[in-house]
Amino acid sequence: MEIPYPNHSRYVLGAERERYAKIAAERYAAGASIQAIADELGRSRSFVNGLLHRDTDVEVRPRSVARRSVSDSR
After folding, report:
1. Measured CA angle at 34 (ends 31, 37), to 5 deg
2. 15: three-class secondary structure by DSSP
């Protein structure tokens, strides 16, 4: 599927949003990370995350990166 030209306006609606959602769902189901999809689409991570949550039936995987505290980095 052809990736839409990045439109960095505030809202992405209609057919363009549907294309982004379909691409994001296909890539995510194939194992791509949300950040990788965002980079590919030229959009933000939060935009892709919102697409996956609101516009697709894909179950979003939990974040697997453990956050380290300041004391752990010493």
Report:
1. 85
2. helix
Positive/negative CA dihedral, 17, 12, 51, 32: positive
Angle (deg, nearest 10), helices 45-55 and 34-41: 110
What DSSP string runs through 52-69? HHHH--PPPPPP-PPPPP
d(C-alpha 21, C-alpha 23), whole Å:
6
pLDDT tens digits along 36-49: 999 999 999 999 99
Model-level pTM?
0.75
Separation of alpha carbons 15 and 63, rounded Å? 29
Which SS3 state, helix, strand or coil, does residue 3 take?
coil
